[in-house]
Each structure stands twice: as structure tokens, then as C-alpha cells.
Amino acid sequence: MELKGKIAVVCGSTQGIGFASAMLMAERGATIVLLARNEEKLKIAKAKLPTSEGQEHVILVADFSRPMELKSRIEAYVSDGNNPDILVNNSGGPKGGPIKDAEIEEFLSCFNQHLICNHLMVQALYPGMIENGGGRIINVISTSVKQPLNNLGVSNTIRGAVANWSKTMANELGAFNITVNNVLPGATNTGRLQSIAEAKSTKTNESVEDIFESMASQSPMNRIAEPEEVAEAIAFLASDRASYINGINVPVDGGRTKSL
User: Fold this and answer.
1) Eight-class DSSP state of 101
2) pTM strictly above 0.90
3) How many CB atoms lie within 10 A of CB 246?
4) In whole angstroms, what is the distance from residue 159 CA to residue 141 CA?
């Protein structure tokens, strides 16, 4: 699963699953393009990445809530002659809440942040992947693609749209040796999960610790995942070992999802 000589663009890479994926792929030899909205956090993340293969990692500053800004940044990077081999589309989800109470703006904002930004990233990078002779696109979504999650109405809706967009893209790009797959994390020890637990705690008066324990109990393994465990699936799909895996959803949830 060596990635030496590969260039990987990792979105949302200053923390959580994004940073864990960037770290693991750098350890395996890839040059990482860290993309997120906070420049200072990007610099800190870049300084932590290994460079044992002589990599010169790069940072790109862009906010996924501003799709045209993202488009400008990634197109400028490509126009400088850079042709990444790997794209990890990863962005934090919207706030929780029942779908019946969701505002229209919440759907539009989430649609732009996830589907539209993912699409802009792929459009900017797939021509270079074709020129390279192939590539890997991995979208970090959610197990809600298979089984909607309670109190995450907007997220459930948009994640499903992203999954179907991804499958369609896999059908179109497979002929160019570009694979498109989705990784579906279950409950994972990230800042987003912490914020979801804190919001629920405020509403229910349960402790955050009890909420985490309840989340863990939903998995047959009786624990939540660490970001590095999700990153292993992402790094595998990014490697040559996954050359004939295309257009699938890979849950990394300890068996919590009840469907196959």
C-alpha cells in the first residue's frame, strides 16, 4: 500500500479523519496537499507530516462554505502544472436536528458544502488524473447513506445525494482508470462528534460522557472509532492494491449499520 511518488489532496485536513488520513498517506510516501479554511491550523498540520521520502507538502486555504473560492484555489494550483493522483473529499457536516424543523437555507448550505464542493474538486482534478494514467477519488460521507441517523435530518438528505453523485462519477471515470469510492465512518472520536454530543447534552441534560457511552453501545464492538482507523480504509482505497474496487460504499463503523 505504498504511496511513494503520489500526490494526494486531502480536504478538511487540519483535524479528525482528514488529518489522520494525511498523516497516514504521508507516512506511506505521498506528498500531501492540505486543504482547509484556517491557514494557521494548516501550517501546524503541515509541520507534523513526515517527509522521509523527501516530500514537500503544500497547503491551500479555502472555505467550503464558499464554493467559488474553493474553485479558484484548486484551479490555480492545477494551472501551475500540478496533477494530483489522489483526492480525499472530506468536510464537516451540518448541525443536528429533526428534518421537520430544518430551514431551507440549511439544505442549500449543506448541498453547497458537500456535493457542489466535491464536484468542483473532481472537475478540477480528473483531467490531470487522466493524464497521469489513473487516479483515486475517495469521499468521506456517513453511514447515514445506508441507514439514516436520528436527529441528523439535513445531513442524512445531502449525504445520500453525495453517494449517488459518487456512484455516477465512478461509472463515468472508471474507463480512465480513476476509481471513485465512499468511506462511511460511524461514530468517530472527532471534534464534530464532540459538538454533536454537547448539543444533545444541552437539550437532554445527559452528560457528554453518557452520550458517548450510548453511541459506543450501538456498535457490536462497544466503542467508537478513532480517526486513524477510518484513515486506514481511506489510505487503502488510495493505493494500487485497490485498483479494481470502484463505485462502492465502505462502512467503517464496527458493525453498527444493520444492513449489508
Assistant:
1) G
2) yes
3) 19
4) 6
Q: Per the CATH hierarchy, to which homologous superfamily does domain 7-187+226-252 belong?
A: NAD(P)-binding Rossmann-like Domain (3.40.50.720)
DSSP 139-202: EE--GGGTSPPTTBHHHHHHHHHHHHHHHHHHHHHGGGTEEEEEEEE-SBSSHHHHHHHHHHHH
- Work out the pLDDT band at 154, boundaries 50, 70, 90: very high
Q: Give the total residue count for the chain.
A: 260
Question: What is the tens place of the pLDDT at every residue in 91-104?
Answer: 988 888 899 999 99
Question: In whole angstroms, what is the distance from residue 144 CA to residue 153 CA?
Answer: 10
Take residue 166 and report the three cell numbers written for it: 459518487
| Torsion (CA) 213, 216, 218, 221 in degrees, nearest 10 | -140
**All residues at 6 or more sequence positions from 146 whose CB lies less than 8 Å from its CB, including other chains:** 184, 249, 251, 257, 259
208 vs 224: CA distance, rounded Å = 14
**Residue pointed to by grid coordinates 488510495:** 238
Per-domain residue ranges for the chain? Answer: 7-187+226-252, 189-224
C-alpha cell at 130: 487522466
pLDDT band, residue 260 (cuts 50/70/90): confident
Under the banding of pLDDT at 50, 70 and 90, the label for residue 1 is: confident
How much is the mean pLDDT over the chain? Answer: 95
In angstroms, the CA 248 to CA 136 distance is 13
Provide the pairing of β-strand 135-140 with 178-185. Answer: parallel
Query: Do the beta carbons of residue 186 and residue 11 sit within 8 Å?
Result: no
